[in-house]
Amino acid sequence: MVKSPKVDEGEKKPSITYWTKEKVVCPVCKKQFDQEVMHKGGGRMIAGKLTDELHRIFEPSKKFGRVYPLIYDVGCCPFCNAAFYWKDFSEIKDGDSLERIRDDEDNRKKQVETIFPYYNTKGNKNLFDGAAAYYAALLCYEKVDLAYAPSFKRAMTSLRLAWLCNDLDTVCPDHNYGYIAEVFYRKALFFYQQTMVNETARLESIESLSYLGPDMDKNYGYDGVLYLCALLEYKYGQREDENMRLKKLSEFKSAIARLFGLGKSSKEKPGPLLEVAKNLYDDMAKELSSNNIFGDDD
After folding, report:
1. Which residue has the higher pLDDT, 262 or 198?
2. Which of 5, 118, 166, 200 is 20 to 30 A away from residue 264, measured at CA?
């Protein structure tokens, strides 16, 4: 048996996370469990570039290596596998929603294990465990009442799952996580657009939500949601029906132009969202132009 190397007296390995003193109470099974939280500062999060999907890439450090802050934003009960964003463990109180999640426990575990076998819900999370918790959350929000804005939460969860699966594909290639990421991107496309449909029809409101992400470093709000609807359609929308695709791109191009005042300097919105919106607008205009279709940006 190979023994672990001794650590010098007084030497203490810096930790990425800590456990909160207060226990979390699962609203589904009523049992208590610990919450893991990421430490702030200390060189743990070295911000890199912002992608066109509004995803912040964090650079690895010599002390901590590569960290994945997103995985600590979702909790998964180790007893019943119910998973939510941490705030919802105390906010979701609807009895029917909780009963549906409770009744789906066996099916939920089976579905998560299909994609993320041998994931762990106890102890310190790694990237694999974090992705599994997000998938469990996606399945739980499927059972939640519209009053809790589940369509939006499924949208943001699906998008984050796509990012995490791409990370998994990088660290453990040849396990099809790149393909799985594409599936979650398409789920994100559907749920983001469903969020807008439900909001317009007043079936499900996102007004009460204080954070619309999509990542953890900045809240891009409603503008970000509309931008992502357009971006995901452009990058991951269906291509079998070309006429339908071009029609949708034309509509989103006009919506992006109106929202961000593109071409009208007096209405420009500062910040990184404007930059990526301009790039998306140009990309959509280029595709539409090559097919002799021009959107109305008035």
Report:
1. 198
2. 200
